[in-house]
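Worked problem 6 (solution included).
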Amino acid sequence: MKRRRPADPAARVLVHARRGYARAWSRGNARPFAAAGHYRWMAGFLSGCRNVLEIGTGDGTGTAALLESVPAVVSIDENPACLRLAQQRLRAEGHRVRCDLRGAVQTTATGHRMHYRPPRVARLERGALLLEGDILSDPTLDAWLAAGGAFDAMACWLIGTYAERTREESLRRLPIRDPDDYCAAVQRTVIRLAARLVPTGGLVHLVDRAERLRDAADRDRAAAYYDGLAGGTGFRVCEIDVRPYLEPGPAFGMAVRLAAPSAATDTDRPKGFLSIRLCRR
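Solution. The predicted structure is:
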């Protein structure tokens, strides 16, 4: 069925922004990152898990990498355009997949507000369940997750968003001034959610773009930053790894923001994907 075009001009702007972000990330970032083996490298840190909660589905490339070794994945994204791409990708690769698009847009004088109905699906024993939702402001999603049982791990890789997202009314209560603040807010929320959903012995896996770590001092600074995000949750950094990568050119994809630990360092240094595993002991 052809998707109905929103009647409200502000809602159409949001739909356009979401679709543009989904296409740009998929074509210019996710595909070349997958071709270079980066997503398989990320997923390797979660090999052996029975189920994983992924925050930030993107076009499903990371979800597909997880499903190579993890039987069941629940993946959440607030962008329905990303979820539609992910559903198509996963089905084309032969994975069992269900998708629940549950958001409704209400335009306001200064932006928009999202309303989410309760999820109408149950977790799968095998395959991927894709859910539209916002972990920063979605109480019905929180309740559904809490009722569904534990996860072995949570994953949040290369989190980002589109400019129109900043017009979401519920985000204005948070101290978000730029993409770095947004990334930190999501990662902090992921770790706090894991404190309720991931048992002792489980882990949170974050992946950021950062300048490559030169020495023990760089590694200690990065660990201190992520331990700070996890403060009071019982999670602590247990492993940091770095994988070199090439930034996509402006004609091909979006530049991935530097992670906060690199913000005050020399930006001419070589870049890498920073893998951070936080363990609950």
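Discussion: The CA atoms of residues 4 and 12 lie 11 Å apart.
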